[in-house]
Design a protein that fits this description.
single chain, nine-stranded mixed beta sheet, about 25% helix
Length: about 250
């Protein structure tokens, strides 16, 4: 199993904090966010990494080098045009080759055990991928994911509008008082993913979106397992979130 980490963005919502540093290199408990992710994947047995860099790429590349300090192999590729999450993984296509791979954004923190849980779930059956999720009764938090009776992905609605939410309620997809599942942004894929990212068209938001490729995989009858993340899941999106992590010494 390989791992691809998307760390090309600047993180504009961080303001002055990312004037000189890419967001994945901001520190939490004395260690860059990206290093926390690397450490968790290492604990799950992953040793071969590809980091997609962009803004201040040299900061990431200088810190991690070729990976000797972590007894790992770390490779890099730069996303020169920031045109969305759907095209970013393609920088790693040659690196992935014929292997399965974990794909994660470089600003999402979870308990290290999460990656092992993902590999265990993915290994139970023949899947083309795995999508992690978190649960909430607030239906305005992000991309909604819907699963079948075997907890495999059957539908994904990215950043639903109020009108879309009303349609989902009418369709019975969001029963009152039920838990809504949200895309947690950490995945496992077979390299077949690249067949779908290659065909992406820009979304109404003007970007190539990974979630459109995932939806196309489902429509093409690829089976994608679901996994609820247990314990901590943090999208380090703004200075307030970063400050809260610093206060939470328990991690």
């Amino acid at each position: 199993m390989k791992a691809v980490i998307l760390a090309a963005g600047k993180g504009t919502r961080m303001g002055q904090l990312t004037r000189e540093l890419p967001k994945p290199m901001l520190c939490v408990q004395g260690k860059p966010i990206l290093e926390h992710i690397l450490d968790g994947l290492l604990q799950a047995g992953v040793r071969d990494f590809f980091i997609v860099t962009g803004f201040r790429a040299e900061v990431i590349e200088d810190h991690f080098g070729a990976g000797q300090k972590w007894n790992a192999a770390i490779h890099y590729g730069r996303q020169m045009t920031q045109d969305g999450t759907g095209k970013a993984p393609e920088a790693a296509r040659e690196f992935v080759g014929e292997d399965d791979f974990v794909l994660t954004y470089g600003d999402i923190l979870v308990r290290p055990q999460t990656y092992g849980d993902m590999l265990a779930r993915y290994g139970r059956e023949a899947f083309s991928g795995l999508v992690t999720c978190t649960g909430s009764q607030d239906v305005t938090k992000g991309g909604l994911v819907f699963f079948d009776k075997d907890f495999c992905l059957r539908r994904l609605v990215e950043k639903p509008s109020l009108a879309q939410l009303e349609d989902l309620r009418r369709e019975g997809e969001l029963p009152p008082g039920s838990v809504a599942w949200y895309n947690a942004g950490i995945y496992i894929f077979k390299p077949v993913l690249f067949e779908f990212t290659a065909r992406l068209q820009k979304s109404p938001r003007g970007e190539y979106e990974l979630t459109d490729a995932i939806s196309a995989m489902v429509q093409a009858s690829h089976r994608l397992a679901g996994l609820e993340i247990q314990g901590r899941w943090v999208d380090v999106r703004d200075p307030q979130t970063l400050a809260a992590l610093e206060r939470d010494s328990g991690g």
